[in-house]
Records
---
Amino acid sequence: MDWEGIFGNLSPASFFNFSFLGEYGTYILQALGYTLLLAVVSVLLAVIPALLLAIMRLSKNKLVKGISGAYIAIFRSTPLLVQLSIIYFGLFGAVRIPNSWQLFGFIPMSRFIPGVVALALNSSAYVAEIFRGGILAVDIGQTEAARSLGLSSWSAMKLVVLPQAIKNVLPALANEIVTMVKESSICSTLGMAELMFAAKTVAGATYITLAPYTVAAVIYFAINYPASKAIEAIERRMRRGDKH
Amino acid sequence: MATNTELIRVVDVKKEYNNGTVKALNGCNLTVHKGEVVAIIGASGSGKSTLLRCLNMLETPTSGHIYFDGVDLADKNVDLNLHRRKMGMVFQHFNLFPHKTVMQNITLAPVHLKLKTKAEAQQKGKELLERIGLADKANEYPNMLSGGQKQRIAIIRALAMEPEVMLFDEPTSALDPEMVNEVLDLMRDLAKNGMTMVVVTHEMGFAREVASRVIFMDSGQILEENTPNMLFDNPQNPRLKDFLSKVL
């Protein structure tokens, strides 16, 4: 069979040509740090607005409910890349962040902040739905008991419903971080030096076109797979705990 | 009975769902005086729980008035939270807060609403727990308790607010049979001590023994209202006769 004719000069070895690791290993590790920072910070930033959106979504006031619904609809129905571009060129085209501001010496804030803001705004729409589900999953009897004791609807939410809802949604929230570790790769298109960007850069600099991406894939997998397995295990334990 | 002992007066309360296609309450009138124990009986779906839940506005009536201490709770300008404090409610499924200890369940509302300091509320909680013989459970979480214990704690959680009336929504229906009596005994004890109570129940023996008045409901209406002896021994309404023939 004429393998050369089908695959051109792509040999199986080109998947595994890791000769660049010596020179670019540190760079790739830094990029991994960038990726993790993007994912964790944006989900953490998303928590408070998401909570607000979820509570608004469950409000009886049609306007309040509508605003939250529109936000969630917009961010869930448009591509993240489009959102990122609009926020990067639009919002942060108007609000300039000095190039000299750096995080840990290798992350320029002028790129990191727009990236995190876009990811957080996007994530808050998804996390809002997670919270909404979590709040609705708390038995209505809990609210009724709290209200029958004379607590206001906000006090009942804050003291009785939310503590139970948040415990229930912690695994889903952790899953959202896993999702963001992957989704944040889109930030490479705007020059944020995270893992995907590093792979592209190494491929360009070394003319090794495939193996840098293999390395990126392996790293993503090595982080996300164990993380989601751990979350699953925690979820199973929580379910067991709820039974008695 | 003199009108100055009147605590709750329900006037022509209707509750409709789905734009009036479902009528859960079809014009109910009821007066509860201080110190009375009113039992509400009737088949499932007769509207008895709905009526009870209207008393503290957990269910908003479609029309009608609910006067509590002379204030119409159905009036939208009334601060319900203020009045609900004085109406303890006990639910079929207990509804203890699972993320709080027994003591925290009891002290949460009095402390949060600044009716008592934490120390006062805990003292009161301790006394109430001692009264029901569960003082040793103060720091347990509800999931460690039996159904009967949960319900008794739900009752004293309501009592900790020092209510003027206690509303019971089928308090023993979700209990294993061997736990029914410990809950009924506590309710008997409350009645004996003069607590005003409205009890939706399937326990005919309890209604007969403890209630000062029994109300029979069917399809959203109060069809008969009498002393327990009269209502159980000499029922007038054919539907009440039919109901009693099935449950007694």
Note: Chain B has a mean pLDDT of 95.
---
Amino acid sequence: MSRLQLRTLLRGALRPPDNDSAFLLDVHRRAVPRERMARYDEDYPVDLAIVGAGAGGATLAQRLARRGWKVVVLEVGPFWDPDRDWVSDEAGSHALYWTEERIVGGRDPVELGKNNSGRGVGGSMVHYAGYCPRFHPSDFEVRTRDGVGEDWPISYPELKRHYELLELELPVAGERWPWGDPHRYPHTAHPIAGGAELAVQGARELGIEMRVGPVGITNGSFGNRPHCIYRGFCLQGCKVNAKASPLVTHIPDAIAHGAEIRADCMVTAVELDDASGRVTGVRYVSDGREHLQRADAVAVAGYSIETPRLLLNSTSRRFPNGLANGNDQVGRCVMVQGAPQVAGRFAREVRMYKAPPPEISSEQFYETDPTRGFARGFSIQTVGPLPIGWAEHVLADGHWGQALREYMRDYNHWYTLGALSELLPVAENRVTLASEVTDRNGIPVARMDYTQCENDRKNIAMAKRTMQEIMEAAGAQETLVIDRYAHLVGGCRMGVDPERSVVDSDHRAWGIPNLFIADGSVMPTQGSANPALTIMAASSRLADRLGSKLSDEAVGSAKPERSGAWPLHRSSRARPRHGRRQPA
Amino acid sequence: MPGRDFSLPEHLPNLRPDRQPAPPQELPRQRNGVTPQMHGRYPDYNVLDERSHWDRQTRRMVLERVEQLPPVRFFTAQEAATLEVFCDLVLGQDGEPKIPVLEMVDAKLFEGKLDGFRYEDLPDDRETWRRVAAGLDAAARQHGAERLPACSPETQRQLIQAFSEGRLHGEVWDQLPASRAWKVVTRAILSEFYSHPWAWNEIGFGGPAYPRGYARLGAGQRESWEGAPAFERDPVKDVPERGLE
């Protein structure tokens, strides 16, 4: 039997090699067991303090904990218990979002909040739809190929192995993927709902291919994670534990390997030793008290708004304008994706609240096509707005009063497609501090300015046209088209030139040897793919780089007493390794 | 009234000459449970009948919306009077029973549950709501009435239409961009109205679905408990099709 056939036969049965999270969860409750979680003393300099327990921070913590690092993750939000804290309800999921004040400006201001922010262990992946596409190889060399945006300092092949690993860990379900670097998925595609079937047919008539997936939702049970029940509330936190988020995919394994996840801790500054130019730990507020966690290194993983905000708020003699901001690059080139939505009305009921919102997608328009008159492209996916989301869609078309109610009563006849348009990085699109507005701790809040460029507008316009054509070919009797944004990335981008970036290709802040940034803010461009998988893959790669580098250093001079303390495990069983515990 | 065929799109406002729907009073009366103003397309469907199938946390939260009417604590009496008219107009709530949206919005603002961002040219959402109340009254004065509730229904409708298109000017509105303020207040109104199970009855939404989930996902399919629409079958065609003659 060929390897390929064997792999097809084993679909859904393969276990990720270095991550036991799914097996460490409890069979009968959804909360992550953490009775045995390590507790580090604040005065004990841990190897790494990570700020933020989302896609970037949690993945890094799990990888490094496996490599013997003593890791503390400080998370501003709570340690979620899906049974206790989450509800099958749209309005009731308010606590999943970043609801502290932020200011939005620019000519095309971006709505934040439930649209694109998260808090709590698991980050915004707790309430993302679940789409887990890879970036295309072209995404890493946009400047070279298309003359726009910026090249990444790393290439697709450097991330490929991490994509493959993470697709096993989440795990990702979908049909064979023909776009970008063609690949298969470890879990078979999920069944799709009636509306998605209509959309697939409509697209096919136009010669547009749509495929099922790729979604980070188990198809069948996976370890102690149950199968999906198609209840449609992916965006409200998966009470089932079927949808992947770091809370269930990486945190349990990180804890089993000695990482401490310290929830409800708002980090207010990264401490810098002005003499040596190294960071020494993080200052944070918990239970109304200020604390200082000492650390040999710090990785900031607060995403595109909070990471720049934290750096800008961490001032010192050496960095009076904010940590790592010597070249005025922090916060620049923050990006969103254009996410216009087209709803189509069908004769039969399609009830889009059923089945997960992520069902099918197409990356046929992902790459630059010179005939279109703009650079880069967009992807098309399904979105299944629940009643509040649908009401916002109808209102955006200008209906209120009885007309709004009429469209709302028609809810069950509508199905919705959404695009992700790649918007280009622009230096003036930036996260800064709104110095006159402070949060409850007296820390200035973030301000985000956003203005689209001409290329962006053309891209979004074509995405809308294309989706409208698909809906019409599918037999839609009416379409409603609205504008939206999705997915933040950028703000602390990686690069080869300190004048034009904040971190190097190893996520290390220019000029600060032990400060790293490990989240979506390092991405120089955003492609037309949902960023979650790429953020995780980049963190996974960073862990590889850190592991080998620090071991080398340890052999040399930095920490001789710990040489050999960072072996690269390939165990397939969880092996708890506890750090120094605080006295009870 | 004659049966209506909702497989056709003729009832949709955009496809009608005046962009307005037919009077909703022509729709079936709700026979099971409550909908706002008691009309809807699923007259025998009451999502609250399914409450025993919901997880405890969700059930408690949803039932609270129905059973507990929060008092008005954030708005002044005068603001509340104006904003109640405004909310009812935006939502087409022209009769009892009504979903108490103003009280729900008031509770949210009183508890300081904000949405995590504000436009640079707007104040805090709470202050925006107060200024909108003052601004609507100011606009009413331009039409000769003392305040919004005192305006004629037609003037009220015109004012809301102008607000929705960002066309309110003068006094409060010179410091408050109307189109942005419209987004802020409608976001809250829609979020409260469509979080209420009575509104779910009206539109035939399945409501909370954990731990039960769904098995019938195809077009035209539904679970046994999901609401059947009125007029799903045209009796004139249905009788011969099913051989009932």
Note: The mean pLDDT of chain B is 93.
---
Amino acid sequence: MNPVNYLYLAALLFTIGASGVLIRRNAIVVFMCIELMLNACNLAFVAFSRMHGNLDGQIIAFFTMVVAAAEVVVGLAIIVSLFRSRHSASVDDASLMKL
Amino acid sequence: MSFPLLTATAALPAIGAIATAAVPAARRTAAKWLALLVSLATLALAVVVLVRFDPDGDRYQLTESHAWIKDFGVRYELGVDGIAVALIALTALLIPFVILAGWHDADPLETHSSRWRPTQGFFALILGVEAMVIISFEATDVFLFYIFFEAMLIPMYFLIGGFGDRAHAGSDEHAAAQRSYAAVKFLLYNLAGGLIMLAAVIGLYVVAGNFSLQEIAEARANGSLDMATNTERWLFLGFFFAFAVKAPLWPLHTWLPNAMGEATAPVAVLITAVVDKVGTFAMLRFCLQLFPEASKWATPAILVLALISIIYGALLAVGQRDIKRLVAYASISHFGFIIMGIFAMTSQGQSGATLYMVNHGISTAALMLVAGFLITRRGSRLIADYGGVQKVAPVLAGTFLIGSLATLSLPGLAPFVSEFLVLIGTFARYPVIGIIATFGIVLAALYTLVLYQRTMTGPVKPEVSAMPDLKVRELAVVAPLIALLIFLGVYPKPLTDIVNPAVKQTMSDVHKKDPKPEVEAAK
Amino acid sequence: MENLIALLVAAPLLGAAVLLCGGRRLDPVGHWIGTVLASASFVIGAILFADMLGKDEEHRALAQHLFSWIPVEGFQADIAFQLDQLSMTFVLLITGVGSLIHVYSIGYMEHDERRRRFFGYLNLFLAAMLLLVLADNYLLLYVGWEGVGLASYLLIGFWQHKPSAATAAKKAFLVNRVGDMGLSIAIMLMFTTFGTFAFGPVLEATGETGEGKLTAIGLMLLLAACGKSAQVPLQSWLGDAMEGPTPVSALIHAATMVTAGVYLIVRSGEIFNAAPDAQLVTTVVGAVTLLFGAIVGCAKDDIKKALAGSTMSQIGYMILAAGLGPIGYVFAIMHLVTHGFFKAGLFLGAGSVMHGMNDEVDMRKYGGLRKHMPVTFVTFGLGYLAIIGFPGLSGFFSKDKIIEAAFAKGGTEGWILGGVALLGAAITAFYMTRVMLMTFFGEKRWQPDEHGHEPHPHESPKSMTIPMIVLAFGSVFAGGFFGIGDRFLHWLEPVTEHTHGHPPIGATTVTLSTMVVLVIGVGLAYLQYGRRPVPVVAPRGSLLTRAARRDLLQDDFNHVVLVRGGEHLTRSLVYVDHTLVDGVVNGTAASMGGLSGRLRKLQNGYARSYAVSMFGGAAILIAATLLMRAV
């Protein structure tokens, strides 16, 4: 199968993730969409790795996974503590950071 | 290594400032005396500088040079030429009078708590300004100069904003608002100028590779440092803008009346007689030496602006209702003369401009300090609130008259010498500008005499009828200044001897020769 | 001998310094210090004069160099004096008449608590005037020139509590400053033309430059002279200057101040000789002022203001003579000296009258005073006869010569100038007779003032009458002494040069016609003021009279154009400075504030809007990168 098709898929997934981040208000869903974007990138990396015949892309994909895992830990912790204090997981409720 | 005299002259008031600030709250009078003694000691050091300086010697004397920020070639380089010596002497001379005149200006009001220490702060700030002004006159490293040129703003800001004139027409809140407006305006104007200058300083470093005034000037003179015409012009404008704000030149002048009006009279003297002189001094030292070609290129425009300053400042002084603002606009007019003299590019003009800086310092100090005494007595700055003071306080009126006469450049008093030199120096190269500038002397007579007439003559107003005459302390401030005005008006030779060689150097920096008189040229 | 010259100036200067700085301790002796030092100056002048007479004509000039004043590259100004015959004449006039006025003031100012200060100012006045005539360069002359302005400012405004006096003083100084501007421009022109402004080098080098330059210098010097000597168009200060105490008026009008302009022109003779256009303007100014002053003098009811108009007119004669060139210089100075005597006498007489009349100045409230003040009447009368040019008295010799010289100018100009001078003589006779008749003849017209005090005219004390008597002697004999045998001419000729003019009509004809106009003037005045009683309230008068009472509307013109216009200008400039110049800056600050206020709204706190800007930014960056690649 033509590896370019994987890239199309990655672009599609990334777009879905991006729109989710921008449109959805539930923090968990936004978070999942960010994961989706990361994974879309991973897919693209792996596809490039296959196309160029070296391992660079796969190595970076592992890095991304590590970063994503760390991010999940911090991010979920924030969301949980937000939920505890406000009883809501809507990102719009946390709009106090403004001038 | 010889004794670092120049460093000591600047460091003494700096140390004195810290010491004064550290005096405990209850010992206010001690703080005043300490400040006065430090300023007198500084004056003594300045006199030593004056004596050690040899007018016929090298251009820069008493030099000190140490590496400072090696990576950028910034050095701690000091040195004085005749012009700097004269201005250091002026600064050191005026500060004791400023301190003495402001003796009670910062006494805490009864409402303040006992831990409040405004007096210490006031005198410490004055000494701090003195230290920075003196080192600005001494610095021959562009970066070093820049630092103190800008740092001066900090104590000045607090002096204007924190210790305003208590004689205010409005309520306390209104006064405070006016004062902070004046202080912020002062700060913003000068910061804006300073930032543009910073850009030019960096630009100069990029072009020249170091900050040393002497090295760059020398390289410029012998042709080893070539600047593109446009580069030179932009750098010149960057420097000039900062100095023109400080000086101040029309149309960058509007901060001065606010600042001088809201500050106490001694601080107003500090602004116009001391701090502003750094601006005009720097034009002579930095603009002309570093960028001779660009200076010549900009001369016509600058002369026109200076001319506008002269006439415009004088006309506005006529229209003022507030004594201190009137003096401020008069100063704008006088700064126009100084700048005109510098850029006329003749020996007479530049010597005149340098003398003018000194004489204007003394004459404005005399007029403004007496005006301050007057204002303190009556509690009002408005001219209309006075009348007939001559009758109740003849000595005060007499000294005020002499200050006014000095401001209008009466022959026999020092400012006449400098003003006439500037006029004749300008006229020699630019007759039309010289003639228009002479109208300034008529206008000067108008605003000073109108001021004198409205405040001092006529029937005695009931509010001033119990006004006491000058006290001993106040007389001790005014009398020496007046004596100096008369002395320098009759015998300015000691001053011209110091200034002349430096002016000759500057003239050769810009490759200009005096125009020959017609009869001689024909031969 | 030459070392004494500085002492001439130093003596009164010392007096001024001591009296003004000395404080109240000196009050009881202040007037004596002042008088003694002024007289000391006169004595020194007399010694120098005696010494000068002992030398032959060519070696009479003395010079004294004190020190270098402003040494600057290419610019040399010295404190140096020169004393030649011209300066000597002035020195004797200034110190002589000046000392008499000092003596007179002892009595006149007896009841003024600030008498010490008054004498300090008088001494300052003398010192400045002496500096003016003794300077050997134009810049030092300028110092004296402005010093005279300062002293007159202080003296005219001596009674500062009167707003009118303070205003008059300020006006005098300001108008003089306009003239001073002319002098400073003249000095600048000399500097760029000759490279110096010392009398000797400048006046010797006049041949080496073009006429245009010299005309410019001459006109600027004339402007200066107009200011000091109260010539049209800068004459307006003189009338108001009467606000000062009367001895001051005498000093200003006779010995100092107004004579400075004549001195300046005569001193700069070589410049004017080489600039005929400037000379022409000078004569025109002189002729116009001559008539102007005379007409104003006819209409004033204030005795001092009438005399002020007369001074203006007489100085006009001198300026006219000075403008004629070498045929007139000597006569200008001669008239100046004789005028110094009789005008000082007249003013002191007027002061004496006022002294006896509770400071009343309105001549309509005098009348018949000759019985009450015989000494004043006689001395004033002799001064009167001298000024109208009664044969044999001082004015006759000096004025006659000027009229003759005016005719000798030649051509139409000569006829016009001569005619004007003759007409002036007629009007002089008219207004001076008027003053004389209204004051000393007729019935008494004074009435009790609002407090019910009726004036009791009485003769003044000796300290006042003696100077008047001395001056009356001068008024009678000075002209004859100078004029007969051309003594004065021979004395001044080495300095000012002299060429004999040839008037188109003979000298006798000129003298005769002068006599005729004199009789006409006196006769007309007698018909109007001698035969008929003088009304106490001034009649409305003709249009010209009313205009002349207001100084021919010159003040009104000044007020409307300069004062009002200036007020509007400064007021609008204050507004412009506040709204426009400051407005631009404040506007910048305000628009910055507005802009940041708007930008602030972008920070709304919603995470998704930050995300949008992030994505948007990323998209723009990528697009830009791609675009750059494509290009």
Note: Chain C has 24 helices and two strands.
---
Amino acid sequence: MEAGTSDSPVFKVVLLGEGAVGKSSILLRYIENKFNNKHLSTTQASFATRKLTVNGKTVELNIWDTAGQEKYHSLGPIYYRGSQGAMLIYDITDTRSFERIKNWVRELQEVLKGTATLLVVGNKVDLDATRQIQRETAEEYAKSVGALYAECSAKENIDIDALFETITKAMMAKASEVSTLNRGASLRRSTSRRTIQVSDDTDTEAAPKKKCC
Amino acid sequence: MKVHHHQLFHNPAEPSTSDSNSLVDADDLEVIVFKDAPEPVIMLPVTFDLLKMKPEDIAAQITLEDLPIFRNITATELETGAWTNQKTKYSDAPYVTGMTLRFNLICHWVQREILSSDKVAYRASLIEYFIKVAKKLLDMNNIHASFAVVSALLCQSIFRLKLTWNKVGRSDKQTFDKLTKLFSAENNWQNLREHTDTRKSPCIPHLGVYLTDLLFVKDAMKRRNTPLLLGEKGRHEMTMDAIIRSIASFQDSVYPFNEDPAIKAYLMSMCSDRDGIKAEAASLYKRSLEVEPDDPMSLAVPSASTPRRSSMSRLSHFSIRRKSSTPIPPETPTSCIPAHVRAKALCASARSATTRFVKGHKKTRSSGDADGCLGIDNTAFSHNDPEPTSSNNAASVDSLDHILNSSVLPEPLPEGNSVDSALYRRRSSNVCPEIFRMLKPRRSSSIHSNRRSEIKDMWYFLRHGEFPVDEEDQGYPFESFPVEMTGVLHRSLVRTSKKKPVLIRYSNRMYVELRGPFIVEYERKTIPLVARFPRELFKAKPRRILDLRINHFWTATHADGSNSFEMHDRRTGCVVAYRCDAPSEAELWTNALCRIMSDDREVDEHF
């Protein structure tokens, strides 16, 4: 596996959503060339690693697809624990799949407690004529739960790359936020240690002086 | 582990044909269940205790139920991806969905069993038990069910139970860690795939991974650009065939287990239909929050799993909160109360909020007289806000001293506090201005029934978010006054208000409290169950309340050397005598009463 071999940061992204909303189609479309051109063993199907350069930085995405296993209710936690991003995919022509998204969001928020970037994705925009969920409704919902929103079509290859770019950018922003926080904390710790050392010195020096005087 | 295998194979000599026969029967049964037909009624033995069953026996029975469904999965079901079609999946892919349902059933059953107990230790032993079951299932190559049990333990409703997990034994935890590693999705289920590939029949693999792969390959086939020649098989078709073949290679599995009717009946009872499963997921999580709240320290709601505190203290927290939230009687609109009174009321509520956890000093509040009526440790009294709302703030500090040392009679309450008396009058206006207000004796006046009613209130609170409004529970007017003096006295009516002399007979001992201008009497309990303190011998609800400010015709008299004192109503001529244990005590009472009554009237003293 390529994961972890390079120094570029690795992000884990899970694709969640009702069956038949096109999760695997999105993933397939995204990694299409690889899938078609190389011999593919079963161990590599439904799981993709892809390097991506965003804002001049190279990151590696590990994309996990839950397709086909949606009905295994309890598998969710196994997938999404430890992931930095989650794509919640629904079918814009299927109200039920949108309602299912809400359950996922609730679950993710309970378990990951805001550590993951959520991206709500409306798939099948090529079927705009039979659209059931209006873009505004979905956008509003995504905003209310602090998630990003995007629409795409795996069939027509509309905005698929943008999808992964969007979530990667958001994850990078979150990661840099965390790392700056950590760096700040570590900096502060180191400086404080230094100052303590200095003050200790002055104290030990000052104390006897005072006594002498 | 091999040893276990041999132990489990109860009857290795049994011909496999008879086994498959029995499996066909079981299979039919399963199908009936899956079609949501009425479940066959099998009575569960009353004495059935899961923890007393051997994990391997449970595992064997689970496997026997899984196997027929797995064996019946057809290549067509897998090839067409029929299980993903929301509408037709049950008819087109009955066995693939059947396996999924089995997985979910086991998963829910495990969660339900663990969450059924309020006791942390019991839950922990159930988790240990299920880890053992999962291990046994894996040993008998029922990867599917083993995964179901492990994923149940990984579900948020179980996974978050920190207290419970802390009590799980180390060796079981290690086993669990190994199992989670095996069932980790890392590298696209690499460990699980490798484990499955090395298994030999009999084995029930986890279907989910295959399903994902199949769907993926199927999607990839759809996308192919170049059409295939007739009879030619593309790469993806080959892949798909390989997947289906590897599933099929396990389908000839036969387990030489015998059916155990008791366990079977038990496992049948865990079944619920599909809709039930969906509904249950939420309720399981709710239940999980119930047995172990998110942050046990920050929640006032008691739970069985928070570190043990006596139910008493928990309830008193509740009752104090409840009282302090309504420092001003609700019948008076806040606007008509002067601002500083409101502020004071807020102060009082803030104070009572801060004293919420200081239970200790409450005990000293009513500390005693000669009788040693110390420490009111009574839930009914805990909501008598001891801070004097109607005295000014400076006095409140003093009054605390009084409370701490009530054997010394306190200074009379500050006079001429017009705001306070206005507030007070409003409070007392709902007290009937009769001489002695006879309260309807309540049936539920013992501490225990009182606590029960508090529990009832609590449930009401949990359900409705507010406490039930009980008029009598709005608080007595005397509650805002500190207890100045307490004693166990005998009471006797010497002459009624109609000037009729009555037979002088002292009553049973009463618990009498002097609170500001109120004399409060409590009757003895019929059967005192808890009597660590003298106070607990008496009922929580007062029997009589005498308001000396309204009924200011009363005078207290005391004859030297007598151990009783009398209360006279100069207007009606009613005389009530109280007998103390010692003359000095009677003197103390008389003095205290006189001081109160001298507030705004002359005092008759007969020495």
Note: The domain at 482-597 of chain B is CATH 2.30.29.30 (PH-domain like).
